[in-house]
Fold each of these.
Amino acid sequence: MALPPTIPTSFVPHAAAARRFRSDFTSTFDALAYLILAVVFVLALGVFVYGRILASDKTAKDTALAKAQAAIDPVTVENFVRLRNRLSSGSALLNGHIAFSGFFSSLEKVLPANVRFSSLQLALNDAGVPKVDGVGVAKSFNALAAASNAFAMDGHIKDAIFSNINVNRDGSVSFALSATIDLKIVVFSPTSSAPESIMTPSPDVPPSAQGAPLSP
């Protein structure tokens, strides 16, 4: 007898599609896991090989360094160390050495030809600042004012104070000078050279440096 079409022929549930999806998902996950494992293995192998290369390179450099150290003469090294110490000591001495030749060069450049010094005294004060005290003669008050302005414009002779100003019978003006000197021009330099004479006439100061007459 034939069964009606509404009656199921089997009591097994239709779950084949779900099992197929689960099987595909598991296969994909396994493939990804194997891929990650392969990448990790390759990286580990690369790190191992690179480590071996570095170790070999270090061994070669250590051997080369040992050979170089063995080839060094201890006497030569000691001589080089002694020379270095001497150069360092000499440099320290020269850096602290005072040479007034730079001051004379600067003075020769800025001092007008009609102003001359008959005596100069250079020394360091208690604070270690170079000072100059001198006595000189200027042709006129205008020449003395020009010298004062020239010192101010140059900047190497600072805080210049002119005192004991007296007019002589020939119209010249005698004076005394007290000033400080810029430390930069009195520090020793191998290229510094002293002028032949600070009494050598130099060109007159330009009109822009001329100042007002000084009163005695």
Amino acid sequence: MPRLFTGLEIPEPLIERLTHLRSGLNGARWIAEENYHITLRFIGDVDDPVADDVASALAKIRAKSFSIRINALGSFGGRKPRAIWAAIEAGTELEALYKANESAVRAAGLPPETRKFIPHVTLARLKGMSAKAVASYLQANGGFSTTPFKVERFVLYSARPGSGGGPYVVEDAYPLESDGAAISGIASLDGPPG
């Protein structure tokens, strides 16, 4: 039973920049650089027929390429921090691609996502880390940002069964059209398979 999710790959020059953030927080479990990604839609553990239905529905998405950038660092967990992440500046194109992925997954028969879409790259997992240490790390690195980078495809990833951890494998890739306009809305699921 594969554990699946859709996401965006991080370009190599940006991966190199993100790896420079992997210090200054003792006890953090840093994510391997080859596993950096931006999750669009977590799918979970599904059987092969459902995985095939999801892949078919995703292939019907029609979208234009667009640019995004990292504009800050942050943490999840409040007073009990559990992750450090790089925030993605969300524009209408990224939001529309997320919604098209959500619609495709639901068209394949899966329930709706209940969590709010917060586009990010997870940099580290934290356990038992003090909020003060995390705040200090974020203050020292909080000005991190990148120039925009082009999103030219989204992918269907698989993870190790039952763990959700890497290494992540690209199971299928869905290219975006190259002129940079936004997704064409609900009709984005009605086109021919790509």
Amino acid sequence: MKRRIYVLYCFLGIACCLIWQSPALATGVVTAIQQRYERLASYAADFEQTITHRESGSTERRQGRLLFKKPLLIHWQTNKPHEELLLVTSKEVWNYLPDEEIAWRYPLSVMQGSQGVIQVLTGQTALDRDFEVREEGREDGFRKLRLYPKEPSPQMVEALLWVDNNALIRRVSVLDFYGNGNDVRFTSFKADAPVRAADFTFQPPAGVDVENRDGTEGVQFFD
């Protein structure tokens, strides 16, 4: 079965006794996050990703690196257990599987209007506009927020954010309509990192099959 990176499809929420506070308590945090990401030009981070499949009860764990540069250049590299690359350039989107010697090329339009983990992690979504946000105190030294999309989609019906004292998102956990979970935790994070233009370009190696897709088949990334 081909492994694919999808546009954030699952994020399993852990059932717990919720400590609901007034939505007004989250207003200051949301404002701080949005202002911080408005100033953020780029970042480099190492991540651990855990994907939980509700129907089968299986769990996948991945490790990799994420590079981001405004306005929306993304280099998502999974190193373990299998190498995989999802690249959003200024012109197109690539999904490359080295061990299968295949690369899919999509138009940038596949990223438009999508709602998921990568949009949250890169500050592309307006939290105060798109979500009802509740603050749930602190956990592991981070402020914890619970998000409910004002317009839920199959990719996201609920999300949790862990935010550091600099108003930077250090972990995201998303629950999809089917009960699948996608949890991305940064193990290292460098704001305004000096990323290179070459990090956001891709030339398929010799011998790699390239399949051009128009995105109408409903592709989803970052799963």
